[in-house]
Amino acid sequence: MVTETAARLPGAATSTPVTPRGGGVTIRLDEHTGLPASFAPHAAGPVVPLRIGIELETGGDETPGTTGGLTYVNTHRHTVRNIVPGSLHHTTNGPDEAYVIDTSAGNWLVRLKIAFRPEHPRVELRVAASPTAPDDEHIIRDLYLDAELAGELSKWLVEAPGNKVRPNVSASAISEPVSVDTAGHELGSPGIIALHHVEQPLTLIVWPFSRSEQGRITVQPSKTGLGLHIGTQLAGAVKSGEWLEHGPIYLDVFSRTWDDVRRDIKDWYPSIGLQTPDDRPAWSSAVSLFEVMVGSAPFYDGYQFAPYPSFGDLIDDLDRIAELGFECLQLMPRHPYPSYNIHQPGDVATTYGSPKELQLLVDECHRRGLRIILDILLHGVIDKTAVEKAAELVRNGPHIARLDEPGVDLDVYGPEHEEISWCRHILAFEPYWLAGSPPVHSLLNAHPEWFMRGSSGSITGRYTHALDTANVAWQGCFITACEALIRDYSIDGFRVDAPLYNHFANWSESSRRHASYSSTGYLQLFRKLRRRLHDISTDVILYTEPSGPFARESLDLNYGYPERWLITSMFDERLDKGHDWRRVTTGKELADWFRDFDSALPAGSVTAHFVDCHDTMWWRLTGDHWRREQVGLPATKALVPIYALRGGAYMTVVGGEEGLEAELKRAHALRRYLPEIRLGTVDYESVSADSVAIYGVLRHDPKRATIVAINTSKQSLRTTISVNEPAIPNPSSSTHVLDAWTGEWLPNGVAQDGVLRFDLTFGPYQTRVIVLGDPPSELNDARGASG
Fold first, then answer.
1. What is the pLDDT of residues 613-655, one digit of tens each?
2. Mean predicted confidence (pLDDT) in 576-602
């Protein structure tokens, strides 16, 4: 039964508290705006002074962005100023309970719904907007929410798991904007921001979780404190009496420390309707992938990347790839054309090679026990008109005079250099794309309704003609093409490139009512695709770039994009030291960052970690493509065990293995012979070191535990590594234990007060993998003391 009561704000001297009937989070509403002004874990609990503001961006004109898509000019901003008198209503329906508040923002109504949940996170916000003027159509370009933490910022620490900021950064240290990817963003992260107090157990969670918009969060200094600016990207055309809604945004406040709270985050996902696949093929959970390309890729400065000019060259190299320990090939589209563009859906001859060549490659892989997946595209088609438009934007854009800049900070805090790199890429490929593509792509005439458009009716895109992944007919075409590739060639799955690449609104007549939804339409597509492919084979995997929670619902494997900045942050000595307040710089901070990222992902998430992939080497100038060139070979050798032995899948792009062959063979041997390394628990909390330079993680399963410890510094050091004994299921009873990385036998640790301690020496960038139980016979051939 639904009951509704009207509440009214008291006089201006106080604010209105709202709290669920059974007690819990208490929110105080501002007496003027009606918006939340503070949060407390319960009615008598400590207060977090977090004030919410809402702003609409409307109207204006559309114009291409620097690298395509849409941006808006001459827009209008409307800020929520006042509550509509008598509009605060309290609604209950069994366990569901909500407050609804109408506010005014210029000639718009903005409705805030605050729903209380019985489980964590305990507060759900939704925001909707409706025009008050009777005109036929009103345009929303974006909806912004601003949360401002007031007070003494040195008392607060900020966490953003999976983003470009170190753990435990002080709110007072944040001196410039920090971008945080939402759960639905193009690259994606857990999307959680936590603010926690340094002196008392008090933690606030802010968590945008929309399935309809990608959104972006910026953490930045404000006039009176610290601001969280949420650009939702909500966009659409609405009439008077209609509403366009964004949400949910989850919030919660705890009388607990952040360390306690983050351990529970995985348990929140089922209650908000998100789980990872329960039918993941077993082979995908710890697969080691080798990314390969046939053909030649040009670069702006004349460099040519041609590891395999022909299919024959690739087939001739399969034995070497297998000997390095890789288990699956990931075949990129042929370069230089069509590159990462759709020539025709399901096309093989142009996209990869002749059908005969592709079948021979698949057969030769399978004969060696290698699997093979295809890199497949869905975001756009290319023709001469698209290429000419993209090149014109570059030549007339703001970066044309800066294309020779190296962009050392590209991975860390260089969004501008990302655009510069993309401009170089367009001009490098321009002649090849023009030579290979048709004057006008056939799908533009055959299915014009499949494409994203601006309000003028013209097709939009970022160097391609952008396909609307929310269009049901296009989804069907794409799925049918994937089914045919599985049936015809017996491949083992797909890596789906950039499904969120078109992160702008679709203003076509059929989509403009909720124009921003097209950007995330791939979520529905992937659900359908998984079911259809598993009807053919349950052993097929789906793998994609985005790493946020939504991209993990229907996918077996996700790129480790959020992790790539760490390599530059840790080891690139060319970085500007003025940003050190946010950087991860020590092995201890690296382990803590990994711990928090893993903790904030849905249970069952599998990430493909990498040191080099084509997206790390693709955007740089000659001499700076590979990690070994950027940070030196000794540091890169240390990176192999850090990423290959930390749990999940591992990948390398061809060329990235050069100089690292021994390390790759060793890492793959440990993944193969130590089950706790391959599929065991990843435990950052049960191991510690006296030196912050040591990166340490404990890998364990019910039978055995193994320490992975790496000196991330270029200095030799001696340190004590401690392991909690309850995390070791069957500790070694001998006097020595095996370091499976070096082959040495080391003195066993000293047990005291439930902790096992090892006194160890490390050379510069040295790795140790210490097996704490009986090592398998395949590794037990090291010479030395046996105990």
1. 999 999 999 999 999 999 999 999 999 999 999 999 999 999 9
2. 94
Rounded to an integer, the average pLDDT of 281-303 is 96
Token pair for residue 355? 């059908």
- Cα separation, 277 vs 293, in Å, equals 29
Element (H, E) at 227: strand 225-231
Structure token pair of residue 167? 């753990």
pLDDT tens sequence across 340-374? 999 999 999 999 999 999 999 999 999 999 999 99
Cα distances (angstroms) measured from residue 199 to each of 40, 154, 203, 260, 585: 16, 10, 11, 15, 25
Tokens of 131: 């025009």
Q: Which CATH class is domain 2-267?
A: mainly beta
Spatial CA neighbour of 485 closest among 362, 571, 307: 362
Once rounded to an integer, what is the mean pLDDT over residues 715-721? 98
pLDDT tens for each residue of 382-417: 999 999 999 999 999 999 999 998 888 777 776 788
- Whole-angstrom distance, CA of residue 26 vs CA of residue 37: 11
Decide: 3 and 16 in contact? Cβ < 8 Å: no
Give the start-to-end residue ranges of the domains of the chain.
2-267, 679-771
How far is residue 267 from each of residues 153, 263, 503, 534, measured CA to CA in Å?
30, 9, 30, 28
Give the strands of the sheet with 717-724, arranged side by side: 687-689, 717-724, 755-762, 750-752
Please determine, for residue 155, whether its predicted confidence score (pLDDT) is greater than 90: yes
> 395 is written with which tokens?
């030549």
Selection from 227, 126, 237, 252 nearest residue 177 by Cα = 227
Q: Which residues contact 708 (CB under 8 A, 6 or more apart)?
A: 641, 645, 646, 677, 696, 697, 698, 699, 767, 768, 769
Burial class (CB within 10 angstroms; exposed 0-12, middle 13-18, buried 19+) of 692: middle
CA distances from 388 to 120, 264, 351, 394, 439 (A): 51, 51, 21, 10, 10
| pLDDT attached to residue 438 | 96
Output the DSSP codes for 324-382.
Answer: TT--EEEEPPPBTTTSSSBSSTT--TTTTS-HHHHHHHHHHHHHTT-EEEEEEE-SEE-
Residue 545 in tokens:
């770039």
CATH for 679-771, options being 3.40.1180.10, 1.10.4160.10, 3.40.50.150, 2.60.40.1180: 2.60.40.1180
pLDDT given for residue 238 in this prediction? 96
The reply to whether the predicted model has a pTM over 0.90 is yes
3-state secondary structure of 266: helix
| Single-letter residue type at 239 | K
